Amino acid sequence: MPTALTTTATVIVWVIAVGIMLIGARFQFTPRAATDFGIPGTPAELPAFRAWASVKGNRDITLGLMLLIALLGASDHLTGWMTLAGALAAGADALAVRFSGGPVAAYLGVHGATSAVSVAAGVVLLLS
After folding, report:
1. What residues contact 81, with CB distance under 8 A and at least 6 apart?
2. pLDDT band at 76 (very low <50, low <70, confident <90, very high)
3. What mean pLDDT is reported for the chain?
4. Rounded-to-integer distance, Cα 52 and Cα 31, Å
C-alpha cells in the first residue's frame, strides 16, 4: 500500500513528465521560447538555432514520455530510477545555463530546482 510520501512523489513525477513534454512542445512550435531557457543571446531567427530548439524539444518530449510510460506500467522502483536519470538532464541544463552566463534564476531556480525535486521524488520512489 502506498504511503502519503510515495503518493506525493508519484504526483510530482506526473507533473514533471507532463510539464517537460509541454516545454518540449513549446520549443518545437515557438523556438523563441528558448530565451526562457536561460542562455543569453539566443538568436531564434537563425536556422541553426531553430534546429537546436527542435532537438531540445524532441529530447524533452521523449524524456516526458519515458516517465509517463514508467508511471503507467512500471514499479515505483523503476520509476524512481528513471526519475533519477531524468534529473541528470535538468542538472546538465543548469550547468549549460550557468556556464553560458545565464541568470541565476534560470540555472538554479528553474533547472537546478527541477533536478533537485526529481532527485527527491526518485529517491522516495526507490525507497518505497
Report:
1. 122, 126
2. very high
3. 89
4. 9
pLDDT for position 1: 60
Q: Length of the chain in residues, anyone?
A: 128
pTM over 0.70, yes/no: yes
Angle between helices 47-73 and 76-99 (to 10 degrees): 160
In angstroms, how far is CA 27 from the centroid of its own chain? Answer: 13
Q: Where are the domains of the chain?
A: 4-127
CA torsion, points 51, 53, 58, 64, in degrees to nearest 10?
170
Radius of gyration of the chain from Cα atoms?
Answer: 15
Residue type, 111: H
Which residue's C-alpha cell is 542538472?
91
